[in-house]
């Protein structure tokens, strides 16, 4: 497997091939294991393999430590919760991380938690009695109102009864039936009426009343009043809406029932006295105790805030430490214990270039932990496929993300990301050609780039995060769209004669109505891009369409050719001559004899200014290749050339389909035969054979499967050559849509508003124009052009060579701990 | 519309079916159970569960754990799932989901009534109630003295009210009465649920009929076994059997006259699906019967997931989760009491 890095075809290029990886084995003495892993985590270049995957989490060596860390993490979450409730913001982590001991942290956390829990419990107790008193006060007030109002109406009624006996006080009956009853029934029959007062949650009040009614068979009288502001419930400590109730009943049985029901509904009862004087006394008493409690609670809260503040000072430090420790122990759990139980054996992938750094880290760890024996570092041989690791920087990482979103490159496969850096923004810009819009996007992305430091440290929204992550891609996109905008000569759909005056001018004064008929060429051809005089002419669209369509095909054919050439480099790199001869070459011939030829025709037509109909040429090249071309002839012997090309294309299809499966079969048979008599040459490998176990079993060779696979590939390529070329026409379609949309906004909104000669309408028009430009053209059009560029890369370009079935290198590192939010 | 569920089911039920199948994928597997059975203490169990769907429910529990905490938190997860699904459901699925909880309501009513009969504290009883079977005025049950009051005061507002029509007596409550009440209610509930599923039709009725019939038959067997040697008459006993299921009606006649476990066995072995269950047990033994029934139930519930576009998956999921919580409780208890040798006695593996 390509160990000679860049030795074959091309100079070493970091991004073209992923880093050469090696499977390394580390044998670390027990006492320095923790420090070693910690240093390797700082380094972040080793991906540990789980050597204990058959063991369940708590059977592993360091399960107890992980449990400890989990416990500490729980305490830290508890603190975080408490701090956010109290509004304490933890202090930012200082640059220099002072070394702290985990045991100290654990003790400290335990103490602080106990203290905090105790303070909270005390506060809760106080708060509870405070809330109870609060409720009591409310009951006193509201129930007092009942009684006084009832009393008033009763006395009024009494007076009425006294004055006119016959009149029934019907409307007052509801107000005070019981008291009235009390008065009217003579004292011998009078039953002792008791009453209960309290609070009941409002949403339960109806049911409460209903159940009371049912349970006592209607022999109660209940009054409820709504308390406007929510009350804090003493038992749950949460705000709840409640009603004050007074229940009048008669008899002990009823009382016990009502008490049970109150209990069942969570209705808090409070004693209440009928005597007005006592009520007033109670109210003052309760108010006094309330204010007393308030000061106590405030003192308690102040104490708690101070405690939380001290926690907040160290919070981030502890949090980071605990997360780091947990990560270290998780990694240690992946190592297998040596038979002697004196050292741990680690296996993992690391890039070859990092060997020295890793060894250095091992030595430092051994030294710092005063270990008597150093760690052993050795490279293992394996047939496993290593992970893919590209060393990207902040500029290339976003592009690599775009490629990885399709599929992570196979180990050391040619990386399309290299070309994507340029082709992606370029194809985007072909669809988004307007240098006015380009400048807008450039300004937006410059803002992101200039404030990079500040923005990267803070948390952004979902969409903002995406835009920020792709800021350099957007920068490239905007630069390219300024470039293509200059070529299309569009600035918010208006052309400017930037580089020279237009080459054409009016023949006479009558050509003010812009048509090409009245124009004559007066100067040299416009030096760069589109002549502004085309704008607004009747032939503008046909001209641009023809130009952009042909340009799309040229771009498409060249990008597809690039893709096929990449497959050649892959084949060379992996030393597969079958792929060169029976995949790369027939594919090249097929594509270029059809669409390469079309491209050549386009160029010839541009150069010669011929009037030939290229559709006709292409279609009749298949339908009746022997017919005379007539007026569509672009160059001499065109018919012969076409026949040859057609023949080549037809021949290349079976070349793609048939030989490869047979050759593969033969190769497999040869290898298989050799294997059964292979000498035992690699005996030294038996030392670590258990680590690479199972990898040397010969793979199954299913001929029919391979053949069907090849058949599918061939069909896909042949049909794909046509459909992919057609797919590149989206470049033309989107660029047309973009320029048409922007000219509609310009003409139908801005110019129309200008025409009214009214300031208000003009302002309105400008507003609409700005919003439409930003919303539709800058945001939505950008997204759609981005999407189409993405598709052209993923499908049309990458399916020519890219396998994308690798897996990413995921080294053990501490960087995650800084910004991971659980 | 039978046979056309594929066309219309997803309009209202597609999202929830996806949700419930996702939940199903989160059920513990045999590998999980094997790991759990090797735990040394409750913290190990917590640690293992933290890698499962229960993780977020257990992560903030301080370290000396109790079995009750684990069970409580796991039940909370079930309740959250259920509530989420209920919120999203439309008719008739919401009614179907409501039906699932009626069983728990009956159990809770019985629990509270029995508790008050034995002078237990109401709050303590409420904590023991299954959260799925809670309703507004449940605590008021403690006030009632007899069945009529029970109905008139509290249950008339609950969905259980119609089931009460058969057991309205003015007798004072005692243990026997309550047990009969539970079974009568359960019978009415199962029959109602069965009828409702028939009304829905399609795959739902097909699968639910099977599941509910099994449930009814299991209850019939349990009633028979539990009533052997009590003063319950044959007629009364027969009244408690649900009027559907594989045993209905001939099996019920025979079960009603059984006097010992071996006779029950004789009756049940005539029915091929139950033959397998009973053939596993030795004669005169009823200890392992529960487990055997649970295993058979789990097998049937798992099969419900094999078909698409029906509501039985919700029932199956809820039941499987409950079984899983029972398993967890058993494992935790065994671990906590150092009875690891008995750990496999009662665990029912699912997948």
From TrEMBL, chain A:
Coiled-coil segments on the chain, per record: 102-136
Membrane topology: Multi-pass membrane protein
Transmembrane parts of this sequence: 426-450, 471-488, 551-569, 581-604, 640-658, 759-780
Record key words, sorted: Coiled coil, Hydrogen ion transport, Ion transport, Membrane, Transmembrane, Transmembrane helix, Transport
Pfam families documented for this protein: V_ATPase_I (PF01496)
Compartments, record wording: Membrane
PANTHER family, sorted: V-TYPE PROTON ATPASE SUBUNIT A3, VACUOLAR PROTON ATPASES
Role this protein plays: Essential component of the vacuolar proton pump (V-ATPase), a multimeric enzyme that catalyzes the translocation of protons across the membranes. Required for assembly and activity of the V-ATPase.
Family: Belongs to the V-ATPase 116 kDa subunit family.
Name of this chain's protein: V-type proton ATPase subunit a
UniProt gene name: LOC104716185
From TrEMBL, chain B:
Pfam families found in the cross-reference section: vATP-synt_AC39
This protein's record includes keyword Transmembrane helix: no
SUPFAM superfamilies assigned to the protein according to its UniProt record, in alphabetical order: V-type ATP synthase subunit C (SSF103486)
Keyword terms of this UniProt record: Hydrogen ion transport, Ion transport, Transport
InterPro entries: ATPase_csu/dsu_sf, ATPase_V0-cplx_csu/dsu, ATPase_V0-cplx_dsu, V-type_ATPase_csu/dsu, V-type_ATPase_csu/dsu_dom_3
Superkingdom to which the source organism belongs: Eukaryota
Ion transport listed as a keyword: yes
Endpoints of the signal sequence: none
Oligomeric and partner information: V-ATPase is a heteromultimeric enzyme made up of two complexes: the ATP-hydrolytic V1 complex and the proton translocation V0 complex.
Protein family (similarity comment): Belongs to the V-ATPase V0D/AC39 subunit family.
Function statement: Subunit of the V0 complex of vacuolar(H+)-ATPase (V-ATPase), a multisubunit enzyme composed of a peripheral complex (V1) that hydrolyzes ATP and a membrane integral complex (V0) that translocates protons. V-ATPase is responsible for acidifying and maintaining the pH of intracellular compartments and in some cell types, is targeted to the plasma membrane, where it is responsible for acidifying the extracellular environment.
Name of this protein: V-type proton ATPase subunit
Gene name of the encoded protein: LOC104710711
